[in-house]
Write a structure and sequence with these properties.
Distance between the termini: 38 Å
Number of strands: 19
Radius of gyration: 23 Å
Order of helices and strands: EEEEEEEEEHHEEEEEHHEEEEHE
Shape: globular
Strand content: 35-45%
Length: 285
């Protein structure tokens, strides 16, 4: 066996996306990328590195964004046979036609170059098809159907906590948060403070809400309703946009949690009932 290290340089391009690393494996592979059977090695976050144990035979290393776009939003590096450890570097490059794909540095292998050109052709075709299909869908008014689908319930899991939102939300990675779920009009920001981090475990959810409010330097009324503890406040950002923050506090077996539901102030009244429902769906395992 040998060790493969891949370093992903930090870049604003695709910064919120986690890349997936695959290795060519004709026998144990369960995913096809450009007609090559592969198996997943792991994930690669922006500005991070990852290490994997691999065999000593020659193989292709693929980095993709997801399985849906794997056949055009990808790059591969051809590994030669040998037992020495290997370190590869790369970053996501700006090119919307191929989904701002990850590119290995110094990867001048002719087959890899050919693969990139083929991916560009496929990506452009997908992009054009998406525009045409989008136009047809818009013309037929099927966007209403999508709205109905996006409003269907969907459970999201963050370590030992789960929350039921809707299919209109997507999970994103962001430093400093336990989890982040975003949608068209509402963002959900999850924070966790373990008892060990706080050095105490004797606070009620109301007392914890007061500490959160003090840290945020806001003055608001704490409301307890149907077993939920929350407060809200408005904030104007530097760009002049105003947002309403609904903050709910919780206590699990080993930590305190607070969850921000952030919505544009002009939409706040329309989403208040939904936010209360989502906040009430939080479960700790």
């Amino acid at each position: 066996m040998r060790k493969l290290t891949i370093i992903r340089a930090k870049s604003f391009v695709g910064c919120l996306g986690t890349m997936k690393v695959y290795i060519e494996d004709a026998e144990a592979g369960d995913t096809e990328i450009c007609n090559v059977r592969c198996r997943k090695l792991g994930d690669l976050k922006n500005g991070a590195s990852a290490e994997f144990e691999i065999g000593e035979g020659e193989a292709r290393i693929y980095v993709i964004a997801d399985k849906l776009s794997a056949n055009y939003c990808n790059d591969f590096y051809q590994l030669e046979a040998g037992g020495a450890d290997i370190t590869l570097t790369g970053r996501n490059r700006l090119n919307p036609a191929v989904g701002n794909a990850f590119r290995f540095d110094g990867n001048d292998n002719p087959e890899a170059t050919k693969n990139r050109k083929m991916g560009l052709g496929k990506g452009v075709l997908v992009f054009i098809c998406a525009i045409l299909i989008g136009g047809i869908i818009g013309y037929l008014g099927v966007s209403v159907l999508f709205e109905i689908i996006w409003m269907q319930d969907k459970e999201f899991v963050s370590e030992d906590m789960s929350i039921t939102l809707t299919k209109g939300f997507n999970e994103q990675y962001a430093t400093g948060y336990e989890s982040v779920f975003v949608s068209k009009n509402v963002d959900v920001l999850v924070f966790k403070n373990s008892f060990d981090e706080l050095g105490r475990d004797d606070l009620t959810t109301t007392e914890y809400a007061k500490s959160v409010m003090n840290n945020a330097k806001v003055d608001s009324e704490i409301i307890t309703k149907d077993g939920l503890c929350c407060f809200s406040y408005d904030k104007e950002l530097k760009n002049g946009e105003e947002y309403t923050y609904y903050v709910y506090t919780y206590r699990s077996d080993n930590a305190y949690w607070h969850i921000y539901f952030v919505v544009g102030k002009s939409h706040a009244d329309g989403y208040s009932d939904d936010i209360e429902k989502w906040a009430g769906s939080v479960v700790f395992n």
